[in-house]
Design brief:
about 45% helix, 3-stranded antiparallel sheet, alpha/beta, 2 domains
């Protein structure tokens, strides 16, 4: 039987309709597969940018609560928790000039759950230790340098010193007659002045104390000629007028102290800044370290943290993880050389 033209047209139309439906199905399926692939790629990229963060991060501060390091660490930790979307707590582990708490972190799990907030005293403490409990250049790695700034050269108002050159001239005229107080042997206050002794080629007599406060009291009373420390450490006696700042320890003037010249103006090459930094035990995954670096650096630039850093003339230090690690190694080498040459050791 020969099909009628009408049936042929109907069959032909049905075939074309079926073909169009099949083509649409193929296109829809291809589009769906493309979307799935795109979502997977995006997810992988997101994971690369946002690696797994521990549900709880403990930041160890190796000093007593309420001190300068502790206050800054708590402000940074608060900002870090918000940026990471996780819980961040601060735990104070004082002892051994900051070495006890640092040792705890150096031996902590390598998953980013335990971090260390320390200062330059981390490298000075290890540099002067007879038996270091860990290698400060390989067992702990810097996540971010939250702040770097100068210390102040503070002199007794009764000393008669008004400028850096006055201090240097007096020390040259009467070797060992000019005295300085420090928070203890091996402290940044001790090594910082010994570095000045070398730069200025003078002799100063060291009087160690059990902390900054008693040293500062004797400087204010005129029993000791000078000391060095952060603005926050010296402010109680600076405000009284019995201790006078005559210089900053940075190589260049600092905007926070426009009226103070650098000590390097009388002791060429002298530079003794202090920093505060966040560290992690070596071995934390690099992707997590990079995220911690990024978020901690941004936390340091927040208004809350900046308000704490500004009085001490501090500012965050930008840099990659490798650059920050190199900076710590260089600082350690300076203090280790000084400690070795001057036979400065702490049990």
């Amino acid at each position: 039987m020969i099909p009628s033209p009408q049936l042929a047209r109907t069959h032909e139309g049905s075939t074309q309709t079926l073909g169009r439906q099949m083509l649409r199905c193929r296109l829809v399926r291809a589009l769906a597969l493309s979307c799935i692939a795109g979502i997977m790629l995006t997810s992988h990229a997101a994971l690369a940018q946002r690696p797994d963060v521990p549900p709880l991060i403990k930041v160890v501060v190796p000093f007593a609560a309420g001190g300068g390091s502790d206050v800054i660490a708590r402000a940074v930790s608060k900002q870090l928790a918000q940026r990471l979307g996780t819980s961040v707590i601060v735990e104070n582990r004082p002892g051994g000039g900051g070495v006890v708490g640092a040792t705890v972190v150096a031996k902590a799990p390598k998953d980013g759950s335990v971090l260390l907030f320390h200062s330059t005293s981390l490298v000075t403490g290890i540099a002067t230790s007879k038996k270091p409990p860990f290698d400060v250049t390989t067992d702990l790695l810097p996540v971010a340098i939250v702040s770097e700034g100068p210390m102040l050269i503070g002199v007794s108002a009764s000393s008669g010193f008004k400028t850096p050159q006055d201090l240097v001239n007096a020390a040259r005229a009467n070797p060992q007659a000019v005295t300085y107080g420090s928070p203890g042997i091996g402290s940044i206050g001790h090594l910082g002045v010994e570095l000045l002794v070398d730069a200025a080629n003078v002799q100063l007599r060291h009087i160690p104390y059990a902390g900054t406060a008693p040293a500062l009291i004797d400087v204010a009373a005129g029993r000791v000629d000078m000391t060095i420390g952060s603005y926050s450490a010296l402010v109680s006696q600076l405000s009284s007028g019995r201790v006078i700042p005559i210089a900053v320890t940075s190589a260049k003037p600092n905007p926070s102290y426009p009226d103070l010249p650098p000590m390097a103006s009388a002791a060429p090459g002298y530079n003794a800044n202090i920093w505060y930094a966040l560290f992690a035990p070596a071995g934390v995954p690099k992707a997590l370290m990079q995220r911690l670096n990024r978020e901690a650096s941004e936390a340091a630039r927040s208004g809350e943290v900046q308000a704490l850093l500004k009085p001490d003339g501090g500012a965050p230090v930008s840099g990659t993880l490798d650059e920050l690690a190199q900076r710590v190694r260089e600082d350690f080498a300076i203090w280790k050389r000084l400690a070795t040459e001057k036979h400065i050791t702490v049990e």
